[in-house]
Amino acid sequence: MKKLYLLLSFILLAIFMPSVMPNAVVFASEKVNLAEGAKSALLYDKRSGSIVFEKNMDKHLPIASMTKLASLMLIFDAMDRGEFDESTLIRVSHHSAKTEGSSAFLDEGSDYKAGDLIMSVIVCSANDSTVALAEKVAGTEDEFVKRMNTKVKEMGLKDTSFMNCTGLPAIDHYSSAHDIAKIYEKICDNKIYKKYSTIWMTELVHPSGRKTDIVNTNRLIRTYEGCDSGKTGFTSDAGYCLSASATRGVMRLIGVVIGEKDSKTRFNEMADMFNYGFSNYENKVVLSKDQPLGEREVVSSKQKVVKFYPEHDLVKFIRKGEDIKYSLEYRFEKLKAPLKSGEVIGKLFVLDDKNIVTDEMPLVVREDVQKIKLKDILVKIFKKI
Q1: Catalytic residue, candidates 68, 136, 182, 316
Q2: The domain 288-374 belongs to what CATH superfamily?
Q3: For 236-342, where are the alpha helices, taking DSSP H only?
Q4: pLDDT tens for residues 4-26?
Q5: CB 193 within 8 A of CB 187
Q6: With left for phi above 0 and alpha for psi between -120 and 50, is residue 49 left, alpha or beta?
Q7: If we measure between CA atoms, which residue out of 126, 117, 197, 136 comes closest to residue 166?
Q8: CATH 3.40.710.10 occupies which residues in the chain?
Q9: Residue 334 gets which letter from DSSP?
Q10: Catalytic residue among 39, 40, 55, 65
Q11: Is the dihedral of CA 216, 222, 226, 232 positive or negative?
Q12: Is 125 known to be catalytic?
């Protein structure tokens, strides 16, 4: 009886234990020489969540200024709620102005536009600007950090603990390549983040008129084709860290390396991971939203049948040259006119070669279907006479 109980417990644990990346497929089962100098690394396809390569992706490690990705996530959330915008003036406190590490050299007691502070966080990883923004959002850095930890828990990230908003060394301040990738994914398409993330060099003009040169810490935006953003980090404990994304065609890869020995290595190894991904994998359009899948009879309609389409493109992340074996099944509502273009009329199920459902999406019509009128019926009758 005891053995049966243990067996049932293991079965239930296997069924209900959440995966680290829901719906993710791990491709790199063969040995590949990537991120050899990193303590932890991850490369995956943003659209599908499919993992191309991983190395100790759940390991707890110091992450230095990649912490600011989570800080920006909360800052953007506050802006989305309408609490402030880029033109809002933020006063720099003594605490923020005296924050150690990378800095925009803010003047204590001066008022800066939120947009300028955000720019300096994204481009040059300014600690003082990060703390000033944190105080704007939550009143104090401590309260802001509490919200950071609450937010990552809500996201289901279990390998992260923050003790400050900047990434300065602290006991129990850590994350993982997996968690950082998911935080980065959360903000990388934010319009404000995108606006500043590709700036290479600029300057911050202080209220006093003094100017500070700002240089992007992520050199891949200049040296790697398709790199659209990223966040660096360095402390003696964390080593050299980087999270970044790159796009070619319809494929966008997200990568993270933690604990590299020097700055050159982190950029080179990230570029190698991207090269491996783009060279060996592709996002293939299996079904196009513009290609009809068939026709369906419509009751009480003038044209009797209507073509139906997948609501959106079905794109599969695959190894280059790999054949995709699949079949389609449909579930329809009873169709009765009138119908509007874009209206959902059923559901599409995509099955693999083992008849397991891998994808599902609504089926829609792409044209208006008019209801037949009495005069239309009479015209048809007289034509037959």
Answers
A1: 68
A2: D-Ala-D-Ala carboxypeptidase, C-terminal domain (2.60.410.10)
A3: 263-280
A4: 444 444 334 333 333 345 445 66
A5: yes
A6: left
A7: 126
A8: 40-281
A9: P
A10: 65
A11: negative
A12: yes
